[in-house]
Amino acid sequence: METIRFDDIAALQKHVSADFGPFGEAFEVTQDVINRFADVTGDHQWIHVDVERAKKESPFKTTIAHGFLTLSLLPMMNAKGKSPFQLTGQGNAVNYGSDKLRFLSPVPSGSKIHARSRLVSVEAGPKGTRVETEVAVHVVGNDRPALLYSMIVLYQGKVG
Protein backbone atom coordinates (compact mmCIF):
# COMPACT_ATOMS: atom_id res chain seq x y z
CA MET A 1 0.00 0.00 0.00
CA GLU A 2 1.30 3.44 -0.94
CA THR A 3 1.95 5.85 1.93
CA ILE A 4 1.21 9.53 1.19
CA ARG A 5 1.78 12.49 3.46
CA PHE A 6 -1.54 14.24 4.20
CA ASP A 7 -0.33 17.55 2.73
CA ASP A 8 1.14 16.10 -0.48
CA ILE A 9 -1.70 17.41 -2.62
CA ALA A 10 -0.21 16.35 -5.97
CA ALA A 11 0.31 12.73 -4.83
CA LEU A 12 -3.21 12.55 -3.42
CA GLN A 13 -4.80 14.07 -6.52
CA LYS A 14 -3.37 11.19 -8.58
CA HIS A 15 -5.89 8.97 -6.78
CA VAL A 16 -8.96 11.06 -7.64
CA SER A 17 -11.19 8.80 -9.71
CA ALA A 18 -14.65 8.43 -11.21
CA ASP A 19 -14.47 4.72 -10.36
CA PHE A 20 -15.23 3.17 -7.00
CA GLY A 21 -12.69 0.88 -5.40
CA PRO A 22 -13.40 -2.64 -4.13
CA PHE A 23 -15.95 -3.40 -1.44
CA GLY A 24 -14.86 -3.56 2.18
CA GLU A 25 -16.02 -6.10 4.72
CA ALA A 26 -19.72 -6.97 4.89
CA PHE A 27 -21.77 -6.34 8.04
CA GLU A 28 -25.05 -8.08 8.88
CA VAL A 29 -27.84 -5.71 9.87
CA THR A 30 -29.81 -7.84 12.33
CA GLN A 31 -33.10 -6.91 13.94
CA ASP A 32 -31.21 -6.60 17.22
CA VAL A 33 -28.89 -3.97 15.69
CA ILE A 34 -31.93 -2.09 14.35
CA ASN A 35 -33.71 -2.26 17.73
CA ARG A 36 -30.64 -1.02 19.60
CA PHE A 37 -30.29 1.90 17.18
CA ALA A 38 -33.99 2.72 17.71
CA ASP A 39 -33.42 2.72 21.48
CA VAL A 40 -30.42 5.05 21.21
CA THR A 41 -32.15 7.51 18.86
CA GLY A 42 -35.72 7.23 20.10
CA ASP A 43 -36.88 6.43 16.54
CA HIS A 44 -39.21 3.48 17.07
CA GLN A 45 -41.20 3.86 13.85
CA TRP A 46 -42.96 0.55 13.17
CA ILE A 47 -41.29 -0.03 9.79
CA HIS A 48 -38.03 -0.45 11.70
CA VAL A 49 -39.03 -2.30 14.88
CA ASP A 50 -42.43 -4.01 14.52
CA VAL A 51 -41.63 -7.27 12.74
CA GLU A 52 -45.21 -8.59 12.61
CA ARG A 53 -46.71 -5.33 11.35
CA ALA A 54 -43.95 -4.98 8.74
CA LYS A 55 -44.72 -8.48 7.43
CA LYS A 56 -48.34 -7.41 6.85
CA GLU A 57 -48.16 -3.71 5.94
CA SER A 58 -44.69 -2.85 4.69
CA PRO A 59 -44.06 -2.91 0.93
CA PHE A 60 -40.78 -4.68 1.83
CA LYS A 61 -42.57 -7.40 3.88
CA THR A 62 -39.96 -7.06 6.61
CA THR A 63 -38.49 -4.38 8.84
CA ILE A 64 -35.80 -2.15 7.37
CA ALA A 65 -32.81 -0.37 8.86
CA HIS A 66 -32.96 3.34 9.58
CA GLY A 67 -31.10 5.34 6.94
CA PHE A 68 -28.92 6.94 9.60
CA LEU A 69 -28.15 3.50 11.04
CA THR A 70 -26.81 2.49 7.64
CA LEU A 71 -24.70 5.66 7.55
CA SER A 72 -23.40 5.10 11.07
CA LEU A 73 -22.20 1.60 10.16
CA LEU A 74 -19.56 2.87 7.71
CA PRO A 75 -16.70 2.26 10.18
CA MET A 76 -17.90 -1.34 10.66
CA MET A 77 -17.70 -1.94 6.91
CA ASN A 78 -14.23 -0.47 6.72
CA ALA A 79 -14.69 0.86 3.17
CA LYS A 80 -11.54 2.95 3.52
CA GLY A 81 -9.57 -0.15 4.45
CA LYS A 82 -9.55 -1.03 0.76
CA SER A 83 -7.90 2.25 -0.21
CA PRO A 84 -4.77 1.97 -2.37
CA PHE A 85 -3.02 4.52 -0.14
CA GLN A 86 -2.64 5.45 3.51
CA LEU A 87 -2.32 9.01 4.78
CA THR A 88 0.50 9.80 7.19
CA GLY A 89 1.82 12.80 9.09
CA GLN A 90 -1.47 14.32 10.13
CA GLY A 91 -2.10 15.43 13.69
CA ASN A 92 -5.82 14.82 13.44
CA ALA A 93 -8.66 14.23 11.03
CA VAL A 94 -11.86 16.23 11.54
CA ASN A 95 -15.24 15.25 10.12
CA TYR A 96 -15.85 18.43 8.13
CA GLY A 97 -19.32 17.55 6.84
CA SER A 98 -21.06 16.29 3.77
CA ASP A 99 -22.11 17.72 0.44
CA LYS A 100 -24.50 14.89 -0.42
CA LEU A 101 -26.35 12.13 1.39
CA ARG A 102 -28.93 10.00 -0.38
CA PHE A 103 -30.89 6.97 0.83
CA LEU A 104 -31.67 5.16 -2.43
CA SER A 105 -32.96 1.72 -1.47
CA PRO A 106 -33.96 -0.12 1.71
CA VAL A 107 -31.73 -2.27 3.89
CA PRO A 108 -33.94 -5.17 5.02
CA SER A 109 -33.40 -6.66 8.45
CA GLY A 110 -31.08 -9.65 8.24
CA SER A 111 -29.31 -8.45 5.10
CA LYS A 112 -25.60 -7.88 4.78
CA ILE A 113 -24.26 -4.57 3.59
CA HIS A 114 -20.84 -3.55 2.31
CA ALA A 115 -19.31 -0.30 1.14
CA ARG A 116 -16.83 0.98 -1.38
CA SER A 117 -15.44 4.44 -1.97
CA ARG A 118 -13.70 6.73 -4.39
CA LEU A 119 -11.61 9.84 -3.88
CA VAL A 120 -13.49 12.84 -5.34
CA SER A 121 -11.26 15.82 -4.55
CA VAL A 122 -8.26 17.02 -2.57
CA GLU A 123 -7.62 20.68 -1.76
CA ALA A 124 -5.04 22.50 0.32
CA GLY A 125 -6.47 25.17 2.60
CA PRO A 126 -5.43 27.45 5.44
CA LYS A 127 -6.71 24.96 8.04
CA GLY A 128 -5.34 21.80 6.42
CA THR A 129 -6.01 19.36 3.60
CA ARG A 130 -9.68 18.95 2.64
CA VAL A 131 -10.43 15.48 1.26
CA GLU A 132 -13.80 14.54 -0.23
CA THR A 133 -14.64 10.87 -0.60
CA GLU A 134 -17.84 9.40 -2.03
CA VAL A 135 -19.01 6.21 -0.36
CA ALA A 136 -21.58 3.80 -1.77
CA VAL A 137 -23.23 1.27 0.57
CA HIS A 138 -24.94 -1.70 -1.07
CA VAL A 139 -26.96 -4.60 0.23
CA VAL A 140 -24.75 -7.54 -0.76
CA GLY A 141 -25.93 -8.76 -4.16
CA ASN A 142 -27.74 -5.54 -5.14
CA ASP A 143 -26.42 -3.32 -7.91
CA ARG A 144 -28.35 -0.26 -6.72
CA PRO A 145 -26.77 1.42 -3.69
CA ALA A 146 -28.74 1.72 -0.48
CA LEU A 147 -26.82 4.88 0.40
CA LEU A 148 -24.56 7.40 -1.34
CA TYR A 149 -22.57 9.73 0.88
CA SER A 150 -20.05 12.44 0.04
CA MET A 151 -17.87 12.70 3.12
CA ILE A 152 -15.50 15.60 3.72
CA VAL A 153 -12.57 15.21 6.10
CA LEU A 154 -10.09 17.93 7.07
CA TYR A 155 -6.60 16.62 7.81
CA GLN A 156 -4.45 18.90 9.93
CA GLY A 157 -0.79 18.88 10.85
CA LYS A 158 0.61 18.01 14.25
CA VAL A 159 0.69 20.80 16.79
CA GLY A 160 3.97 21.57 18.52
Structure summarized in a few sentences:
The protein has 160 residues and is of the alpha+beta class. It is 23% helix and 38% strand.
Describe the overall structure.
The mean pLDDT is about 95. This protein has a 5-stranded antiparallel β-sheet. Strands 1-3 form a two-stranded parallel ribbon. It is built from 6 helices and 7 strands, in the order βαβαααααβββββ. By secondary structure, the protein is α+β, with helices and mostly antiparallel strands. Strand 6 and strand 7 (about 145-155) form a beta hairpin. The chain is elongated and about 55 Å long. It has a domain at about 1-30 and about 75-155: Roll (Thiol Ester Dehydrase, Chain A), CATH 3.10.129. The protein has helices spanning about 10-15, 30-40, 45-50, 50-55, 65-70, 75; strands at about 1-5, 25-30, 85-90, 90-105, 110-125, 130-140, 145-155.
Q: Give the C-alpha Rg.
A: 18 Å
CATH architecture descriptor text of the domain at 2-28 and 77-157: Roll
Overall morphology: elongated
The beta-strand count equals 7
Pairing-aware structural class of the strands and helices? Answer: alpha+beta
Kindly report the spatial arrangement of strands forming the biggest sheet. Answer: 2-5-6-7-4
Q: Would you list the SSEs in sequence order as H and E?
A: EHEHHHHHEEEEE
Low-confidence stretches: none
Strand content: 35-45%
